[in-house]
């Protein structure tokens, strides 16, 4: 997820704002909608990472800006929302008559809510951002991306599909699935900086279609997610334009709220489940999205801290 967009609104790349909105809605749909909808959004987090890479890897900032915006901010954001969710969890336990222990409370504080794993992942990328920028600006970028595709996407996917009788012991040394998100980080920068030839564009779109078919068939692999996410990212980034001024402003406003919506959407999922007992997944999705947007918009109006924590 993007922690900050392009500062100068006149130079904003609106396609990235559209992609942020799509990714945010995809994540919320995973947590609220029925199975058939969730099949089309497993690549939502990957899309957030591609967007981050496209914005941050080509950005120049001072060491002080890097420390303030990347290194310090994420732990503060995590602490604020972890405390809030822990308080909510304690209230739920009190209402349900579940015993409250110091150990469980401490675990809740340290681990955060289930969807906050994203903050650990993105912070890891941010800590090594200077190294990724060096790779991004070097002549070895294409080589490194291809190596990561092979070892963090293709080999883990083949292993998962069990096409060959490879044991984890046999492939453990070369299975680098842990580098999937760094790959997405670098890929986002590469695809945003390069308009590919027609044959490669056709290949990317064809891969996206194959990935979509795999999703509909319930075949879950990193290869599927990667093919889908780069197709969506590349097509929207290079070919979608919005000229209407009012629509551009609306997209920008919603896009700026996506981080906060991501952080607080589970709060509203719990609220509608416990207070109103909303059973319709579609209604739950609609109300959660609207409430999370409105609340984020309001919080961002708080001077100094509002935008910092959302």
Care to give the gist of this entry?
The chain has helices at residues 14-32, 35-38, 44-56, 63-96, 102-111, 117-127, 129-136, 141-161, 168-171, 180-193, 198-216, 222-239, 245-256, 258-274, 281-299.
Question: How would you describe what is shown here?
Answer:
The protein is an all-alpha fold and 310 residues long. The chain has helices at residues 14-32, 35-38, 44-56, 63-96, 102-111, 117-127, 129-136, 141-161, 168-171, 180-193, 198-216, 222-239, 245-256, 258-274, 281-299. α11 packs across α12 (222-239). The longest helix is centred in the first third of the chain and has 34 residues, at 63-96.
Number of domains: 1
Number of helices: 15
What Rg is obtained from the alpha carbons, in whole angstroms? 20 Å
Q: Sheet bearing the most strands, described?
A: none
**Assembly status:** single chain
What is the overall silhouette?
globular
Estimate what percentage of residues fall within beta strands: under 5%
Spans where pLDDT lies below 50 across 5 or more residues: none
Count of individual beta strands: 0
- Cα(first) to Cα(last) distance is 11 Å
- Please trace the helix and strand order, writing H or E for each element: HHHHHHHHHHHHHHH
| Secondary structure: helix percent | over 70%
Question: Structural class of the helices, strands and pairings?
Answer: mainly alpha
Keywords:
single chain; 310 residues; mainly alpha; 15 helices; 72% helix; 0% strand; globular
Topology:
Elements: H1 14-32, H2 35-38, H3 44-56, H4 63-96, H5 102-111, H6 117-127, H7 129-136, H8 141-161, H9 168-171, H10 180-193, H11 198-216, H12 222-239, H13 245-256, H14 258-274, H15 281-299
């Amino acid at each position: 997820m993007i922690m900050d967009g392009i500062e100068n609104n006149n130079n904003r790349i609106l396609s990235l704002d559209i992609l942020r909105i799509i990714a945010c809605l995809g994540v919320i749909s995973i947590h609220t909608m029925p199975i058939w909808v969730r099949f089309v959004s497993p690549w939502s987090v990957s899309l957030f990472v591609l967007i981050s890479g496209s914005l941050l890897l080509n950005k120049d900032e001072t060491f002080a800006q890097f420390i303030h915006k990347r290194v310090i901010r994420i732990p503060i954001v995590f602490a604020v929302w972890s405390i809030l969710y822990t308080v909510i969890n304690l209230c739920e336990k009190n209402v349900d008559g579940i015993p409250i222990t110091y150990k469980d409370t401490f675990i809740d504080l340290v681990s955060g809510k289930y969807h906050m794993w994203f903050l650990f992942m993105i912070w890891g990328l941010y800590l090594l951002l200077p190294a990724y920028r060096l790779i991004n600006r070097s002549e070895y970028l294409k080589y490194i991306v291809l190596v990561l595709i092979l070892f963090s996407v293709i080999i883990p996917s083949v292993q998962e599909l069990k096409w060959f009788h490879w044991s984890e012991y046999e492939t453990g040394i070369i299975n680098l699935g842990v580098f999937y998100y760094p790959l997405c980080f670098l890929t986002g920068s590469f695809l945003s900086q390069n308009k590919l030839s027609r044959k490669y564009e056709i290949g990317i779109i064809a891969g996206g279609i194959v990935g979509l078919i795999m999703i509909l068939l319930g075949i879950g692999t990193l290869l599927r997610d990667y093919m889908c996410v780069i197709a969506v990212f590349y097509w929207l980034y290079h070919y979608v334009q919005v000229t209407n001024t009012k629509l551009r402003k609306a997209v920008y406003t919603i896009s700026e709220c996506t981080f906060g919506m991501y952080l607080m959407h589970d709060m509203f999922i719990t609220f509608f489940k416990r207070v109103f007992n909303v059973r319709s997944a579609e209604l739950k999705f609609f109300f959660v999205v609207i409430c999370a947007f409105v609340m984020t918009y309001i919080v961002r109006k708080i001077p100094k801290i509002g935008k910092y924590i959302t």
